Amino acid sequence: MDKWEDNRAWFLVLPVFVIVAFSAIIPLMTVVNYSLQDIFGPGERIFVGVEWFKEVLHDSRLHEALLRQFLFSGMVLLIEIPLGIIIALMMPKKGWAASLSLVLIALPLLIPWNVIGTIWIVFTRPDIGLLGAAVNGMGIPFDHTASPIQAWITLMLMEVWHWTPLVALLAYAGLRAIPEAYFQAAKIDGASSWAVFKYIQLPKMRGVLTIALLLRFMDSFLIYAEPFVLTGGGPGNTTTFLSIYLVKIAVGQFDLGPAAAFSLIYFLIILLFSWLFYQVLQNAGKGGAQ
Amino acid sequence: MKIKKRTIGLILYFIILMLPIYWMLNMSLRTNADILSTFSLYPKDITFANYMKIFTDSSWYSGYINSIIYVTMNTLISLATALPAAYAFSRYRFIGDSQMFFWLLTNRMAPAAVFLLPFFQLYSTFGLIDTHIAVALAHCLFNVPLAVWILEGFMSGIPKEIDETAYIDGYSFPGFFVKVFMPLIRSGVGVTAFFCFMFSWVELLFARTLTTTQAKPIAATMTRTVSATGLDWGLLAAAGILTIVPGALVIWFVRNHMAKGFAMGRV
Questions:
Q1: In chain A, which end has fewer C-beta atoms inside a 10 angstrom radius, N or C?
Q2: Which residues pair with A4 in a beta bridge?
Q3: Which residues between 40 and 79 in chain B have a beta carbon less than 8 angstroms from any beta carbon of chain A?
Q4: Do B38 and B58 lie in a common domain?
Q5: pLDDT in tens, B109-150
Q6: Interface test with B, best of A8, A16, A240 (most B CBs within 10 A)
Q7: Mean pLDDT for the stretch of residues B217-232
Q8: What's this model's pTM, rounded to 2 decimal places?
Q9: What ipTM was predicted for this assembly?
Q10: Position A165 pLDDT exceeds 90
């Protein structure tokens, strides 16, 4: 679709720009400022250049946390995106069943993140929690505070439980926005449901799926409250993701300089990957449409 | 037969989805001592004490009121600013459009921990600390970009010929936007409204940093249940159940907009 060329469109974008820039620009500049200085107290600071960046880049614990983070986010995307699409396809299109499914599926999304972690602590406890007791009942000793593998499985379960509904809701809304005429045409052509999915539903969902994928990537990469509450980064450091490690430096050790440098590197990694995903999905769409 | 398999799959998924929430409900109807001492699939002696405490203690229920106020403000601001912007991005080419579009999303990518301090300083400079509008504005940082992105996706799905036809028919831009265009993208508006509400509702770090008492959100109130005697799980679970209610109402109201999609040939 060719767009109209008109720079006056900026007037339509201006309110958004102002309202976002108000909160975005000054804090970002301040963090850049922190990252270049050694701060002892108010008014006592020395310019140290890129010293903090060097220190952070050579921190082996950060490398480990980064690896864990990629593993976690990769698994999140591989599980949640296909699962979300499948659920959206299964959900009824109209009537009371559609309303009910929409409300039910949204429920996990509406619980504050710190509370999700807390609820899952109880839910997975072998003595008083349903999941923990059930797994124990099957003869598998369950204790996510001792076994790294079980801690990961528990976190993934919680994450998939919590966030797949987001993908499903977006995909569902994308599916409902496809005009009925497309399906009628496909029916006349005798297309299989797989063909309908591949040539109509999936291409038409590209926009919402791009958002879903970017959102899930960014938010899972920034995940903090849920693992912090559920496992506290343990056992050992096995579930210490980037944010948890960052908070340890920023709040625990109160090293504002390195923490700021860390934040900026962290931010740039997310930026780079989001941009790559975005480009790939944009181009995939162009190829598919022709 | 195929439809049946589908339904069974969906019901199974919903059962799994509801289990942790059921467990929370189960806990909310029991006393703390009961929760910690016995495993029980359902509350044997149902007690509403946890809920009564929340409804009668103003430090509890004011948390809900504060959250609802700033979340509503945030959702309205996000939608009002994002609708025209998303239209511009979906219909026009202008200087810096793609850079601007992507820049918006970058505001969701910063790890919050270190940004909280400058955030606090910025909002105190404007004297906004402990006001609802401060939290609403701060949440615009991540909700406005999201709203623009989701709405742009839906708007791009509407053929441009519809705009052209409407202008030929003599609609002014505002008239066209409200009377013709908005009904076409209402499933998108419904989804966007819900997501703005949801992300603002569950966010804790900004909301807690920018408030002290007057605008303190419910999620921050809930962290208070950690006391000298340990967590009051029953109270926390009851508060958790109640945090779901407002959002469930929102999605109930927008469900038709999400479910109906749009009918072509309306214009």
A1: C
A2: B92
A3: 41, 77
A4: no
A5: 888 888 888 888 888 988 888 899 999 999 999 999 999 998
A6: A16
A7: 71
A8: 0.88
A9: 0.86
A10: yes
